[in-house]
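User: C-alpha cells for SET domain-containing protein, please.
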Amino acid sequence: MHSKAERSLNILPFWASLRVPALLPGTWQDNSRLGLYSDFDGFLHSTAYFSTRERNKIGVHDENGLFNYIPKSLEIRSSDKAGRGIWTKATFNIGTTLLSCKPKLAALSNTYLDSHCSACFGPTPSTGLQRCTQCRTVWYCDADCQTRDWSFHKLECNALKRWAAAAPSAEVSIPNDAIRCLGRLLCKRKKAGAGSDWAMEINAMQSHRSSMQPSTTEFHTHLAHSIVQYLGLSSPNDLAEFDIASAADLVDVISRFTTNSFTLTSPSLTPLGVCVSPAVALINHSCDPNAVVVFPRSSRSVAQEPLMQVIAIKPIAADEEILTSYIDTTLPKSQRQQFLLETYNFTCKCDLCENEGRSANVDPRIAMWCPKACGGTSPLPVTDTDIVRCSECKAVVTSTDAVIDAARVGQEGLDKATALQFRDPEKSKQLTNNLIPILLSPGLTPSTHPLLGLSRLQQSLLISSLPSLPSLTSSQEERKAAQDLLDDAIRSASRSVSGLTSVLHEGHPVRGIALAELGKLLAVDEPSPKELQQPGDAHPHFFTKAAPFPPSGPPRLKLAYTTLLRAREELLVGFGKSNDGGEVGKGVREALVAIEKELGVWKQGVQNVIQDQPKPEKR
Ligand SMILES: C[S@@+](CC[C@H](N)C(=O)[O-])C[C@H]1O[C@@H](n2cnc3c(N)ncnc32)[C@H](O)[C@@H]1O
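Assistant: Done. Predicted C-alpha cells:
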C-alpha cells in the first residue's frame, strides 16, 4: 500500500523537562578522595565556603548596556517575590517567538560527543564529523564549525588531554558536560576580562551561595573539586588566575551556573547537553508557564545554532511577566516543590501550587477514576486514613490501601527503571511492562504520577527496540511479533498522549512531540496487518471502549493522519509559528502530505478527515 521509505520510523525519545540543568554528578569526582588535591580539601570546606558575606551583590552590574539584544517589546523588571524577571510591553499571541539568542556557552553530553557537532549541536552530517586531532574528544561538522568553537575549545583542549591521561579507566576519561561547561565558563571569563559585557552578564546571574540547602552544598563541593582537577590547579592560589579569590567565590560561580543553566535539547526534545544564557535565565518560574524555551533548529545559518528561543504558549497581555517552567510540570506538587527548593532555592507560589487541594477540580497528576465508573475522578489517597470521594458522584474510594501500595511500588519501580534505561534497557522495559498494569488496576488515570512517567519510559524503550522490525521477506511469525511490538508501542504512546494532554497546556512542545511520535507510530507500515479486529485496549480519544486499539489498515492510517494534524497544530505553537513548528513540525507537515496522497483526500482536503473522527467518549 505504501512504501517503507515513505513511512520509515524516525523517532527519537523525548525526556524533556525543559529547564532542568543537566548536572549529573561527575563519574570521576570521587578521585578527590585519593588525596590528589588535598590542598583544596581544607580550602573548600573552610569557613569561607559558608560565609554569608555578599561579594558580588546581584544588581551590582547595572543592566544598562547589558542584555541590549533583548527586544524592545520586553523589559527587565524586579519584583519582591522573585527578583528580576522579564515582562512584556506589548501583547503576544500563542506561537510567537518572544526572545531568540545563541547561548553564551554550551557543552554536549558525553553520550553525544561523537555523534553531534560540538559547535552547532547538529547531528552527524552526511559527510561525517571531524575530530579535534589534539584532544580527540570533541567533533565538528567541518572546519567552519571548528573555527567557530575555537575561542572556547582552545581554552579547554589541554585540560581534556590532561584529564584523559590521568583517568583511571576509559569510561571516565572525559569529564561530564557540567564540568566541561563550567570549565568553559571560567576560562572564557578570564580571557574576556572582568570589564567585558560577556563576563558582566555571567557575573550578573543570580547566586544562592549564602542560602543554599545542605544537599546542594554537598553537590557544589563535589563540583568544585572536579573543576579544580579539570583545570589542573594545584593550589588555591592558582584560582586567582581565574579571578576567584576564595572558596566562597568559586562556590558563587558554581551556584550561578546551577541556578541559571539550561538543558540544551534537540528539536525533538532529547536532552543533548547543557548551556548558559544570562538573558533567558532572567525569566522566572511558574508550574503553569505562559512560555517555553526550545531549540527548534530553524535559523537559516548553521553559525546561529544552537539557537535558543522563548515561545509564548498562552496569549500574553502587555505588562505581564513571562514565566517558563524550570522543572517537569507533570510531577505532583510535592516533588515539584522539593526540586525547586533544592536546585533553585525557592518555594513556588504559582496558582497551580497554591490551588492544590483547595479547588473542587481534582489535580490530574494525582487522580484516580471514580470507583463507580461514573466518569469522574477522585484525588489519590495519601495515607490509609484518608477518605477520598469522586468529585462527580461523591462515591467513596474503598481501595485506599491498594492505591497507596500501587503508587509506592510504582515510584520505586520508576526510579529503578529510569536508572537502568541505558545500562540494561531490556530489564528497564520489563520493569515498566510489569508495573503499568499494577497501577492501572486500582484505577490511576494516565496523567497520574508515576503512571505517566512509566508510560513515557516504556514508550521510549519500545520505540528503541522497533528499528529491528523485520522486512516483508521475514517469516509470518517474525512479522506477527513485530506487529505486536509496534501495537504495544502505539498503546503506550497513546496512554502517554492521554496523560500529557491532561496536565500540560495546549501547545506545550512536549505535547506536540508526543502527538507526533504517536502519529508516526500509527503511520508505520504494519508488518502483519490484522484481518479481523478484536475488541481491545481502547484509544482514549478516538475510539469507543469496545473498539480495538490500535486499528489496522486504512482506519489506522486515517488515525495517523488526524493525530499528526493535531501534532502539527500544537508544534506550530510550542516551537513557534515563524519556525514552522521547528524541525519536527516540518517533518510532520511532510508526513501529512504523504498520507494525504495515500488516503486520496487531496480534493476533499483536511476537513473531511476531521469530520470522520469519532467524538471522544467519557470513561
Ligand atoms: C534563573 S533565576 C531567574 C532570575 C532571577 N529572578 C534573577 O533575579 O536573576 C532563578 C531564581 O529566580 C528566583 N525565582 C524564579 N522564579 C521564582 C518564583 N516563581 N518564585 C520565587 N523566586 C523565583 C529564585 O531565586 C531562583 O533561584
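User: Anything notable?

Assistant: The mean pLDDT is 84.
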